[in-house]
Amino acid sequence: MQSIILATATRILMPMLLLFSAFILFRGHNLPGGGFIGGLVASATFILHSYTYGVRSTLALLRVSPRTLIGVGLLLSLGSSCVAFLYGKPFMTGQWGEIQLNAEEIWHLGTPIFFDIGVYLVVIGAVLTIILSLAEGD
Amino acid sequence: MILAAVVSVFILALAAPWLQRLLPNRAGWVLSILPLALTVFFASKIPQINGGQIIVESHAWVPGLGVNLTFYLDGLSLVFSLLICGVGTLIVIYSGGYLSGHPNLGRFYLFLLFFMASMLGLVLAGNLISLFVFWELTSISSYFLIGFDHQRESARTAALQALLVTGSGGLALLAGVLLMGWATGSLEINELLTRADMIRDNVLYIPILILVLLGAFTKSAQVPFHFWLPSAMEGPAPVSAFLHSVTMVKAGVYLLLRLSPVLGGTEIWQLTLTLFGATTMVTGALMALVQTDFKLLLAYSTVNGLGTLVFLTGLGTPLAIQAAMVFLVVHALYKGSLFLSAGVVDHETGNRDLSRLRGLSRQMPLISVAAVLAAVSMAGLPPLLGFVGKELIYESILTASGLRWLFGAAAVLANAVLLAAAAIMILRPFFGAPDDPHPKAHALALNLWLGPVLPALLGLILGLFPNLVVQSAVASAVSAVTARPVDMHLALWHGFTPLLALSGLTVACGALIYLMHTGLRRIAQRGAWLAARGPAAWYFGSLERLKQMAGWQTRVLQSGYLHHYVLAIVLTTLALVGYTFVHKGGFQFSLEIGDIRLVELVVAILMLAAAFVTVWVPSRIGAVVAMGVIGYGLALIFVEFGAPDLAMTQFLIETMTVILFVWVIYRLPKLKIEFARLQRLRNALVAVASGTLMSILVLVALSVREGSRLSVFFAENSYVLAHGRNIVNVIIVDFRGMDTLGEITVLALAGVGVYTLLKLKPEDSEAIKMPES
After folding, report:
1. Can you tell me the ipTM of this complex?
2. DSSP state letter for B56
3. Cβ-count burial of B740 within 10 angstroms (0-12 exposed, 13-18 middle, 19+ buried)?
4. What mean pLDDT value characterizes chain B?
5. What is the pTM for the complete model shown?
6. Which residues in B have their CB inside 8 Å of a CB on A?
7. Does CATH place domain B562-725 in 1.10.287?
């Protein structure tokens, strides 16, 4: 029997929490936050969902298996570190580009953000793999 | 050019399985084109090398460590290269016939060519480390080749035995090589050759010698490491012919010859090599005499051949080295031919038992010709090259100083026994009356008889015209080893010399031994219990003991109890860090207390209370929740001290941990482990000690704040270099990104590991069945 409180709360909180985790991920470079924290918040969100609706429906919501997330995350981090090779630089040298937003502001975009996204995905994948496997039971 | 030659064989090896699938019946012929081309290539270098030139080709590999892919082509390498490529060509062709229809033939070609490339690299190596790399590559490819018929357990055991024995010798060789490099300052062979005195006069000369000899003796099957060679006969005939008679086992001899100018010339070198060599020579011959299996007889006679080579290298005189080089060629020709013939006999009749084979000369005339010629060369009878070789051996023993009579007697005995063994191999099996009076001749494909016949014929031709051998770089090989120019004249007939008398004596003794051989075999069988205690038994015994020790150690360290693991980790940390503290006098911290804020006090009291609850509360879930409170308290401290990233991470991780523990405890069985009072005291002591250690560590870390320039560097460059204002995140993602990459890999592995442990249930292991052996 589902708890009504949990169900209602989850329905409202989930989108906000997921947005929040993405927000933490992207603000990490200049303000407190980052890939690890964002990933943990996102995993907590999915764990909340699994408490409410069951592990099977959480896995269906995810659509990809958590282990795939681990692999993709690792690949992304490794790939972003290898971009430096294309410019003849040592492994993991951050490559940065600039985008002119308007007259005063320049937006710096670089490989570390992709590294952080990779970390984000690995954390979600690993934590969900562990906890959902435990929660799934026999 | 030489690099291209070696690499081309590696590439051909990779292409071999595909080629085999493309041309199932002709792959052997096609694949043999490259070794043949290489033989021609090396033969073309003969005039150059004979003229005294040495070709050195150097490619940088790890210049910082003095390791280069250098190739060094002189007479010695040239002779070996010609043998490897020439015999290799025949072996590849032969394999196509011998293993035709075998499902793994493509893989076989891969391993064989890979071995050939490694062996070629070994003899051409001009840098000690690249020599070592090729040395080990030959051991590995030999492992795959011996165990080719991997469904048979005996093949697997033999392959592992060869690998372990030659591999441990290889380790010793590495140590010796590194010491040589350290003593002379260079790992390049051509530089080593000029700095020989630096090694000979060095205080480490004897250790270097022992280590190098260990490597050479294990590879070249000297007593007491000879036992792996007969076991290696588990491999198919082409493997036995190529690796275990013509090339790989000679690698040790090559090394000794190559390092003769550097390590040789001392009394201990001479004594060790001649003694071990002579012992191996006699042992191999005697053991060959009592064998009834065709291949085992040949294997033991190879042990004899290797012993002879080591013995001659040890003697060291120019004449002895001449004898060694000629015998090298002689042995390669007759042994290769005999092994391949044995393979054909096995392939056609299914029988390798010499006491039961009969009348083969009528069933396979061509092979009989080859086998007879090769056996006559092995027996050292004219006009085969084997006779020339044997005469040279006797001559070098007679002209050497030292234990002439002892070595002379050993050599005569060994050669007499060898003659008897050759007779056992040939007389009755090939010319005895067969049970079936009109056996039909087996039609043999070209690729099956080319291999045996060609080397045997070459043995005859070279015996009749021995100076052809001299012209084919053997003379320059001798000059390379003895480090001075040498004039060689070989002839079949020297006149009535004492050498001829010795040869006559050998033949007489050999004939006598042959006539008594069945009786001798029966005596040997009664002494079989002695063999069961020999070096092979030591090998198996030490392997058994190693496994038992590993089992015991695993049972102790991996008891299955979590508290054992935690105890081990905590105690080790305590011991190591504590020792460092005491040893380096690190107890420097100040205990002065500054202003305490109310928030800090409250949080500290909460954490302490939670700690007490954790230890004393009877329920597991209660303990986990109390630990969560401690974690949250820590996060609050982070917030108070202005570390928002740390605080956020700590809050989230603590929550996750509590969730995780609750799920785990929910699934744990209801049993409880009760500790005895003494054990609880022990646990308490360890806990208090580790807590004290951590506190002291934190206090010491606090008082050693100054002097770190890293935080200044990060603060200044975080925005400038990495376009980020959050220094912590920039460090994680950019400055120290490598650590983070490692961390997420570990995290990934932990996730996968937990998943595997949870999903693999004991009942499921029924689905995993071991293949029937």
Report:
1. 0.92
2. E
3. buried
4. 86
5. 0.74
6. 644-645, 648-649, 652-653, 655-656, 659-660, 663-664, 667, 722-726, 728-730, 732-734, 737-738, 740-741, 744-745, 747-748, 750-752, 754-755, 758-759
7. no
